Amino acid sequence: MFDLIDDFFDGVYEPSTSNSNKLSILRTDIEENPDSYILYVDMPGAKKENIKVDFSNKTLKISYHEEKKENEGEKKHGKFLKRERFYGDYSRSYYFSDVDKENIAANYKDGVLIVVLHKVNHDNDVKSISVQ
Question: CA distances (Å), 108 to each of 33, 55, 91, in order?
Answer without folding.
Answer: 21, 17, 16
